[in-house]
Write a structure and sequence with these properties.
about 200 residues, 9 helices, mainly alpha, globular
Length: about 200
Amino acid sequence: EPFRMPEPYALMWRKLTAKPRAWFEMDPIAWGALPGLEPDDNPTCDAAELAAGGDPEGAREILMEVLCTDLRCIDAHAHLGNIEFDEAPERAIVHYEIGMRIGEMSLPPGFDGVLVWGRIYNRPFLRCLYGYGLCLWRLGKLPEALQVFERILSLNPNDNQGVRSCWYDVRHGRSWDETQERSEAARAERCQTLN
């Protein structure tokens, strides 16, 4: 579906989708399809479930085992960044950047195409980019964060991750803390309205 005015992203979306571009799909190893595993087995998904269930240490252990098997598992880097994100963005950004750099080495030289979200092997790279951009934003590096968000939107114009909201706030000079406070205030107002 196209983005239409007055959506702030509409003009950029129109520019990014004006002409056909080549698309690329990452290798299955990026997602966690490790050699010797059944197609439905994915330890990075198991680790994400552990982390969501309140066991970040168990998740970290699985993810480190995955990386000992193959450092190219970009999803393991993304999930390690996710584990660190809330408490230590300066540590999380390292994990995201490693995954991002591995993904960049996987792309053809001079790649100016798209990474379709529907191809699940592309998602880990896009997650690392997104996490990296969020960390830059949290660390007060707005110009760098804006570049990362614009790159994600260029790679995935359909914006399955919701990056356009971050792009809009950063573009208007809003700090991470300011945006979080506004979100909390809006949530509180919605809750009062429902009560």
